[in-house]
Amino acid sequence: MKIYIEDSYDKISEKAALIVAGRITVNPRSVLGLATGSTPIGMYKKLIDMYKRSIIDFSQITTFNLDEYYKLSRENRGSYYYYMMETFFNHINIPKENIHIPNGMADDIEKECREYEEKIDKAGGIDIQILGIGTNGHIGFNEPAENLNIRTGLIDLTENTIRDNSRFFEKKEEMPTKALSMGIVSIMKAKKIILLASGENKAEAIKNMTNGYINTNHPASILQAHRDCILIIDRDAAKLII
Ligand code: GLP
Fold first, then answer.
1. I need a labelling partner for 91 at 20 to 30 A (CA). Which of 20, 127, 147, 217 fits?
2. What 8-state DSSP symbol labels residue 157?
């Protein structure tokens, strides 16, 4: 695992955007795995800017998002569908049919998860997977537990995550307690992984994911076994490892 420690959030966003843009330039048909949360917002802004300056083109790009809340409509401002449209997709030229986000409203959730995996495989797998990290070390919504999902599945969110993420909802009670998430192996199969983290509240999670052990109570620690995983973090997030 390569670790880049940057001076600012802006630098993290820039480095991540440059790596993604480089990949898109080399292969305009790249498949991107995308993340939500506050951390990748800066990277999305930089990519939009590069698109507007005609440096990159998304017309042949395919995307798969990591996760979505269970039983939350797309129109809800807290949904990851809403987030992705507002933050990124509405500002670039990606065809809508190339965008994939798990559907938490599907009647048959098992089928939805199975088909999601099949779609990733059919697209040829993910070239670059962007990840954030939960304060408890989750990636996607793979929460600390004795057993982790290999494939896309339905997950019970922990109290910690419900507390952290309720800030994205107008009323705290709206925050769902379950989510669909790509599984650990779905993530690990990506050819390249970029994990972004900023701020002191991520320092403990960063320490636990880089300590030389794989522990299912720190799901991100599995990334130490990935062949091409890059950590791009700021000094605050790196506080306990430098
Ligand atoms: C959510 C998402 C994760 C993300 C995490 C961190 O829980 N499911 O994919 O990494 O938030 O969010 P933030 O970047 O806002 O700290």
1. 127
2. P
| pTM, to two decimals | 0.98
pLDDT digit string, tens, across residues 48-82 = 999 999 999 999 999 999 999 999 999 999 999 99
The catalytic position among 6, 117, 127, 143 is 143
Domain boundaries, the chain: 2-209+220-234
- Is there an atom of ligand 1 within 6 Å of 66 CB? yes
Residue 56 CA to ligand 1 center (angstroms) comes to 26
Ligand 1 centre to CA of 118 (Å) is 24
Token digits for 204?
């403990």
What tokens were used for 20? 């993604």
Handedness of CA 205, 184, 33, 106 (dihedral sign): negative
Class of domain 2-209+220-234: alpha beta
